Structures are given as structure tokens and as C-alpha cells.
Amino acid sequence: MTPIGDLSAVQLRDALARGKLSAVETAEHFLARIEERNPALGAFVHVAAESALERARVLDALPPGSPRGPLHGVPLAVKDLHDVAGMPTTHGSAAVAGQHGGAPVAGTDDDLAAVLGASGAVLLGKTQVPEFGLDCYSENLVAPPARNPHDPATGAGGSSGGQAAAVAAGMLPVAPGSDGGGSVRIPAAACGLIGLKPNRGRVPTADAQSDAAQLVVHGPIARTAEDAALLLDVLCAPAPGPAHGNVVHRAVRAAPQGSFLDGVRAARRGDLPWGRRPLRIGVSTSSPFDAVQDIAVSPEARSALDAGVARLLAAGHEVGEASIAYDPEYPRAFFDVWTTAMGTAPLDDEQAVRLTGLAGAFRSRALRRSAVELARAVSTLRRIEQDVVRAYGSWDMVLTPALAMTPRPLGWYWEGYGLEDPAGADQDYRRQCQYTPWTSIVNVVGLPAVTVPTLWTRAGRAAPVVPMGVQLIGRPSAEAQLLAVVAQLEDQGPAGPGPAGQE
């Protein structure tokens, strides 16, 4: 029999539903894996073993025939940006955790935790994030960094870095992330996983940061298309209890026909959501940051893109070059909107001095920005959204590299300054844009996108084998199509050596 930890999330869900596994033995298995593997990887910042096992015992004690959720007994975790009753929430910030590391303990579940609880999931704890979810790396002043299981000298990405590291290392079967500029897709790509950012409005979202431009949405990080679809079906459910929060973010959009999981399985049988015709997929390496930065596509990223094109052609699709130009006003408008989140963080002056250099610098700039300036930036992004959706609409999907470089060494972003030095903020942000120049525009325009590994490579002869992949951007509400394409790529065989870089 396949070991519990090596089952896919769908297989694990099925084994639990059929009584072949108990929730307690499943939780115990994954808790043991966390105890064994987390010290070297820093994926988890809080492990709630006692409450997880109590929850599992309650689930196992349900009488036969009683209602069970779609993730009954499946172990999950949430980012340390979310409130879970009885667990501390630091937001990855020493300013919140306090000088002695005493983070406030949440009294109630937030919307995401409530949805996962209603699904029957067992929450094992909280995972590592950058401070307030700002960065594409998961290093902060609260706990050890989230390391990439394939090369622990490099980071797992961010802001869902702890989630991706945990899934890639087998400490979780699947994980929900949140994505406001690539925070699901970046760590998934760095760790050799599938990362899906849903369409704006698809998933009810109340994220732990201000979101003036409606950038943030929850999405799955998974090892397979079926696992991603299973979790996406759960994330689309409304949170239990009274509706609250932004009405646009709480708009629920289920799969067009049946569940997303049913759609992936239908695609594997040849019932494709786009019919019998091939998809027209446009390939582009143009970035909205080209106007202000030298965005270079590394040889490894280029090879991953070429591998993605080859696999799409083998699946029967038409692939051609897409000529896409971006408005040069994008970098400034995005920066103004993105940094505004720090201005709304509920911190006093004493707490603010404990921020990392980038977060502190962003907070200072945000507090000096007027409401009129923010409104202009949002208006610019809305105009750009219309132009980009129109340009992408010439194709069924647009293909880009997932990341411009191999996973970055720990400390690379603020190299030469230190994590606490605000003088390094501009270099830090610039390097983030250079590493991930194709993800944030998808949040601005609200389209769905997925990253998928296409090859495993080395950045040098003596370097570890690491994953590289591509990003597919779909038309509005085309998550089912994206997942079907991922399933097609999976059916061609694995892109590389498998979990944790084992050859």
C-alpha cells in the first residue's frame, strides 16, 4: 500500500471517506513528518498538534451516515497571515510578535479558516510568510526562513513560501495560498508544484492586507491537477456565518459545469472544455516592468519555456509568438498600490520600528501618499487592465516563463544591506521584480493563471537540481481550461525527478 504521506490529496480524501484511514492516524503521520523535516526547512512557524489531534478524534467519532465535508480528515495548514482560533498570528512581523515573540492568539477563525473547517479539514498549524505578505520570498525577523526542499540554500518563494515548502517536502498533501502579485504561483514554481491563481471574484476572499485594487485571491498549491481542482472546489464555498467584507470579494463562482475536479477527470477522458479544436496559445517574454528595469530571461527560464512549448505542441495545441506591449505607467502605479497595504497596517510607532527594512520603507512612503494619488494609481491600473485583457484576448491562453531565474539564494534580495536596513528597500523590490516579472500583471487584470513545472535543471555544474516552469494565463473565468491543460501536460509524463529533487 502507498504510504499515507505519498498519497495524492484526492487519494487521501478517498481513503478517509471510505474508512480505510482514520483522521487520527493521518494527522499523526503528517505531524511526525513535520517534526522530522521542518527543522531543516522552516516551513511551519506554529504546529498545533494537540488541537489537530483533538479535531481528528472528533471527526473519527462521527456516527456512520452523518454528513461529512469534502476534505473530511485531510490535513492542511494556513499561512501565518490568517486567524485560526487558538493559534497565534504574527503576520510574519516582529512588530506584531513583540520584542519577546509573544504573538496575539486569535479568538475566532477568519473566513479562510472557517471554510476549511466546514470542509472537514484538520489544520496542523501555521506556515512561514514574509512580513505582512509583501514579498516574493519568505524570510522575516520572527522565525527561520522557508527553504526550498530541492535546494535548502535557496528560498521557497513567497508569500506562500511555507505552504509550498510543506507540500513539496511531503509535510502537507496540498495547501491553500493567497495571491496578490504572484504569491501562490511564485513559490509553487520555485518548489516544482502547480500553483493556481483563480479569476478575480471566483473565490470569496478576505485577506490580511488592504487591497484597494482587488488584487488578492486564494488559490491552491498542489502536486497534481486533480489535487488543485479538489482544493479549488472547496475554496469557492462561502464562509459559514453572516456575510461580511467586500461584496466583490465574496462573490461565489462555482465551476461552469459541475466541479473543477469533475472537469479535470472529464478532460482526461477526452472531454475537453474547449471541444475538439486545438487551443491557440501565444508565447511572450515581454514584461510590464521592461520600461524601467532590465528584465533578463535566464538560460534556465528560457529552457523551461521551450520545454513548455514542446509539451503543448505534443498535446496538439497551436503555439505562436504573441506581440504584447505594456503601458510604461504600470510600474509606478503598481508600486503605489502595492505599498499602500503597509500604510493601513494597525501598528503604533513603537511597533513600527521593529519592521524589516523593506516593510518600514514602504510604510513611510504609504503614509505620505495622499488618497488622490492612490485613486490615480488604481485608475491607471484599471485602464491598463482593459488594454491587457484586449491584447491577451487574441489568444486562448498566453504562455510566459514562470520565473526569470532559478530559485534565489537566501538573503539575495537584501544582499549587502541586511533584512532590517531600510536603505536596501529599493534594491530588494527591484530584485523581486527581476525574479518574477510576469506574475503581478495577472492580478491587476484579474485573469486566472497557473504555473506548472516543465523541467528540472541546474544553475551550474555543481548546483542542485531545481525545478523551472511556465505560467499559463487564461481568458476570464477559464480555470477549468487551465486545469485541463495542466492535466494534459501531466499525462505526457513527469517533467523531472519528482518530489524534493530526488533523481
Detail the topology: elements first, then pairings.
Blueprint: H1 9-17, H2 23-41, E1 44-47, H3 49-60, E2 75-79, H4 94-97, H5 111-118, E3 122-127, E4 147-148, E5 151-155, H6 161-168, E6 175-179, H7 185-190, E7 194-197, E8 217-222, H8 225-235, H9 260-268, E9 280-283, H10 299-314, E10 318-321, H11 330-343, H12 349-352, H13 357-368, H14 371-392, E11 397-401, H15 425-435, H16 440-445, E12 449-457, E13 466-474, H17 479-491
Parallel strand pairs: 2-3, 9-10, 9-11
Antiparallel strand pairs: 1-3, 4-5, 6-8, 7-8, 7-12, 11-13, 12-13
Helix pairs in contact: 2-3, 8-9, 8-17, 9-17, 11-13, 11-14, 13-15
Write structural notes for this entry.
With 503 residues, the chain is of the alpha+beta class. 37% of the residues lie in helices and 14% in strands. It has 17 helices and 13 strands. It has helices at residues 9-17, 23-41, 49-60, 94-97, 111-118, 161-168, 185-190, 225-235, 260-268, 299-314, 330-343, 349-352, 357-368, 371-392, 425-435, 440-445, 479-491, and strands spanning 44-47, 75-79, 122-127, 147-148, 151-155, 175-179, 194-197, 217-222, 280-283, 318-321, 397-401, 449-457, 466-474. The strands form 3 sheets. The chain has an 8-stranded mixed sheet with strand order 6-8-7-12-13-11-9-10, with helices on both faces. Strand 9 (280-283), helix 10 and strand 10 (318-321) form a beta-alpha-beta unit. Helix 8 (225-235) packs antiparallel against helix 17. It is globular and about 60 Å long.
